[in-house]
């Protein structure tokens, strides 16, 4: 495109809440064939809240929530915040936790009252040798409604589940349908469990779901799509997303996302609206047509 057309395109983007960082970002956006969305904080609002606590037989809900919150008090994860908030709302006293450890893509561990407490997904339970089979059916039912089921264990035994819900952004279905009208394939890439991811995909119309991805593997999934011939834009908000944003042909950050995501990205969605992706494509394609 001519330098003038590019300047005009970047200006149009800015007025619509799409910040193209440079001419290359605009040019690459014109030719993308697939958009990969992170789930949490991108397709969803990123403000998870606890909806249910399911204790193992004979245990009080409060015991499950207090154990989880004691450990998650030391975590920065959005799910951890939801658990700590729920414990606070219920007025639970939290015991101090020591030896805190965070296992990326799995959850967190810590010592509470001399006992090792685990808070995380089924993968964490398996890794630590906890038999959680009594809870998996309930977890699947919670996931089917789009909620994330978090397992809690103490002293090697499953204590229960905490269900967390993160509402789908109101504009997410529009974001997906507009991209489809532009002949662009949509993909969800998430560390969350498959059932939850499938439910959010159904609510938004996303074509393909890649779930239960470890943070360090997100970039490799982008490469796999590129190897399949796709020109990929990735939309994300989190620290975990930065390597995948960098690997994509066009990295797009939600404006309210982490500093590292916003800095890594080629394009920033100022109003946190995933529907702005199709607007970016419209501008980029129009700019490209002004070449000759
Ligand atoms: P995402 O790709 O959605 O950001 P992560 O890779 O951060 O997901 O986490 C994957 C899963 O690990 C979460 O869905 C959750 O089940 C579990 N998990 C991670 N950190 C925590 C935590 N601090 N507390 C509870 N569960 C956690
Ligand atoms: Mg996220």
UniProtKB/TrEMBL annotation:
Top-level lineage group: Bacteria
Subcellular location: Cell membrane
Similarity comment: family membership: Belongs to the cation transport ATPase (P-type) (TC 3.A.3) family. Type IB subfamily.
Protein name (record): ATPase P
Taxonomic source organism: Streptomyces showdoensis
Span within the parent record: 450 to 741 of 801
């Amino acid at each position: 495109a001519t330098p003038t057309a590019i300047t005009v395109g970047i200006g149009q983007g800015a007025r619509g809440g799409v910040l193209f960082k440079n001419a290359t970002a605009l040019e690459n956006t014109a030719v993308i064939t697939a958009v990969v969305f992170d789930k949490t904080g991108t397709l969803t609002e990123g403000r998870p809240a606890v909806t249910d606590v399911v204790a193992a037989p004979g245990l009080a809900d409060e015991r499950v929530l207090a154990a989880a919150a004691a450990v998650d008090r030391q975590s920065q994860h959005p799910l951890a915040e939801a658990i700590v908030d729920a414990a606070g709302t219920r007025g639970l006293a939290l015991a101090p936790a020591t030896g805190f450890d965070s296992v990326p893509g799995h959850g967190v561990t810590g010592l509470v009252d001399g006992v090792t407490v685990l808070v995380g997904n089924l993968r964490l339970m398996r890794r630590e040798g906890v038999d959680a089979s009594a809870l998996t059916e309930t977890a699947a039912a919670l996931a089917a409604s789009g909620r994330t089921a978090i397992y809690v264990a103490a002293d090697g035994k499953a204590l229960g589940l905490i269900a967390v819900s993160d509402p789908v952004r109101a504009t997410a279905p529009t974001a997906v349908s507009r991209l489809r009208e532009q002949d662009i394939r949509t993909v969800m890439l998430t560390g969350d469990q498959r059932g939850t991811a499938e439910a959010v995909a159904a609510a938004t119309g996303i074509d393909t779901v890649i779930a239960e991805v470890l943070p360090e593997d997100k970039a490799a999934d982008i490469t796999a799509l590129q190897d399949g011939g796709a020109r990929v834009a990735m939309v994300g908000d989190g620290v975990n997303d930065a390597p995948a944003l960098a690997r994509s042909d066009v990295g797009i950050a939600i404006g309210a996302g982490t500093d590292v995501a916003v800095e890594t990205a080629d394009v920033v969605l100022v109003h946190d609206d995933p529907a702005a992706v199709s607007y970016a494509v419209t501008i980029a394609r129009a700019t490209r047509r002004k070449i000759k």
